[in-house]
Design a protein that fits this description.
Layout lengths: L2 H7 L2 H4 E8 L2 E10 L4 E6 L8 H5 L3 H6 L2 E6 L16 H15 L5 E6 L1 H12 L4 E7 L15 H11 L3 H11 L8 H12 L2 H13 L18 E6 L7 H10 L3 E6 L6 H4 L1 H13 L1
Helix pairs in contact: 5-6, 7-8
Length: about 290
């Protein structure tokens, strides 16, 4: 198969799958995208923005990883995209971790590398703490633990805009949030913005449940600071110097606490390193996974 045929084959629709799993007494139908067929599997976990999905977060990263010889799973967490809704009153990091384990069990996958953006980073650390033997390497961007920044007032500017968008999902509020989400918002076309808004509005239940969850428990994401030393998996932490959602000192906490971590900082980069600096990100991640 030539390279062009490979690119054409990897679409959201062609890789779309569902699996039903249980978390305690609750059953969830979970959507995921499954691409490639390598011996090693890379799981990619998305962030918590309204309308987020694995494909929306990582569509610039799937094909290079598949070309690098990996099977790639993009798992949509409960409460996002085409996965079942949930009102979450406990730790969302740990809910996502348990659901990921259940998905991997259902697919008969024992060991994975995990790449997590924002909430996905928190969930990846939760998964590594609960299932250390099932993690190869971790890549964390703009997330990995909850807790306050030592330098930036919390909640941050970006998180305030994100929560406002959940409450009032309008194109104006979406543009307001995305303008601080990435460093250079000129790359975000009107078509992309409208597609994201349409995606949000098709699942108003997800939006309403997120607001209900926040009201029940404002601290959805566990502060793993005291437990970071338990994470032995080699970890690459990637951050945007200009991240206005999760400040860079959270990344410094991660590498200070973990046993085997390194950090790369992109200048002129916001909260979406894997999208804003996709080519460099892809090369860096593949090199990290291979060595």
């Amino acid at each position: 198969m030539n390279a062009n045929a490979t690119v054409q084959a990897i679409t959201e629709a062609s890789t779309s799958r569902f699996v039903t799993v249980k978390d305690g007494d609750t059953e969830f139908r979970i959507h995921y995208n499954d691409a490639g067929s390598g011996a090693e599997t890379v799981v990619m976990l998305h962030g918590s923005g309204p309308g987020a999905s694995g494909w929306a977060n990582f569509n610039r990263n799937v094909e290079p990883l598949v070309a690098g010889g990996y099977r790639v799973l993009l798992v949509d967490c409960p409460g996002w995209s085409k996965s079942d809704p949930v009102v979450n009153t406990g730790s969302r990091s740990e809910l996502n971790s348990r659901v990921l384990k259940a998905v991997l069990d259902a697919l008969d996958i024992e060991r994975v590398h995990v790449i997590g953006n924002s909430m996905g980073g928190h969930s990846a650390v939760a998964f590594a703490l609960a299932n250390p033997q099932r993690v190869g390497k971790l890549v964390l961007m703009g997330g990995g633990t909850g807790g306050p920044s030592q330098f930036v007032p919390m909640p941050t500017e970006g998180i305030k805009l994100l929560n406002g968008l959940y409450r009032e999902p309008t194109i104006e509020n979406l543009k307001r949030m995305m303008n601080v989400f990435v460093y250079d918002a000129s790359s975000l076309t009107d078509d992309l913005m409208q597609a994201r808004l349409d995606n949000m509005l098709t699942r108003r239940d997800h939006l309403e449940n997120f607001v209900t969850s926040l009201e029940a428990n404002p601290k959805q994401f566990t502060d793993y600071g005291p437990r970071l030393a338990e994470v032995a998996a080699p970890t690459l932490v990637i951050w945007g110097r200009d991240d206005r959602f999760v400040p860079m000192d959270i990344g410094l906490r991660l590498i200070a606490g973990m046993q085997n971590a390194q950090m790369h900082i992109f200048n002129r980069c916001g909260h979406w390193a894997q999208w804003e600096h996709a080519d460099a990100f892809n090369r860096m991640v593949i090199d990290f996974l291979e060595h």
